[in-house]
Amino acid sequence: MPKTPQPAKIEAAFFDLDNTLLRGASAFLFAKAAFERKFVNRRELWRFAWQQFKFITRGESAKMLAHIEDRAMSLVVGQSAAALEALVGITWEEYVKAKMWPETVRIAQEHVKNGREVWIVTASPVQMGQYIAKELGLTGALGTILEVKDGLLTGEFEGRPLHGKAKAKAIKKLATERGISLKRSYAYSDSHNDLYMLTKVGHPVAVNPDKTLLRFAKAARWKILDFKKRELKANK
């Protein structure tokens, strides 16, 4: 009896958000929008600003990311889920849109044109990733899920924040659900914390890499894109 032919697996491209698609940390930009709407005081905003400066100059660390994300989540405790959605839209329009890396956005959109699914994979709230994906014409986003009870945000996460190993597990689960071939897929990130995700695909790319990721990418002969250096040269 002949075997039933299996459906051909599709290809995808997975993009980290902070410092890969976006200059800096989306959580800080969210906090800035929250400050403008009096969700947060000036002292909290300056704490975020200091973390943003370290994030840009030194690169991401697990401890720093956890600190930024935890503080960002504390801003919305007791707020309605609808208020979060509205604030995400405001954050995009007023702060995030202007800070997207045009080169990385172009690459993501080229993947779409070439028939691949394109997913943002971020430790930021999934609502932020989904909003940006929609604005850029991408397939969708995987992100940290915030707990909602009776329509209000509790400040807690559902499951674990999407960081490190959690990202790798998330794209493997998505690949199983959607018939994606990870071997034929791509992943883009700036951080060594995303090595778990990058090593799960056949075409990993280091974008604006931190020192640890840069060393690893060179040793593994991965493609390396550094838009920061190009931007510095252009501004001289």
Automatic annotation (TrEMBL):
Where does the signal peptide begin and end? none
Write down the InterPro entries for this protein, in alphabetical order.
HAD-like_SerB, HAD-like_sf, HAD_hydro_SerB1, HAD_sf
Q: Do you know which NCBIfam families this protein is assigned to? A: HAD-SF-IB, HAD-SF-IB-hyp1
Q: What is this protein called?
A: Unannotated protein
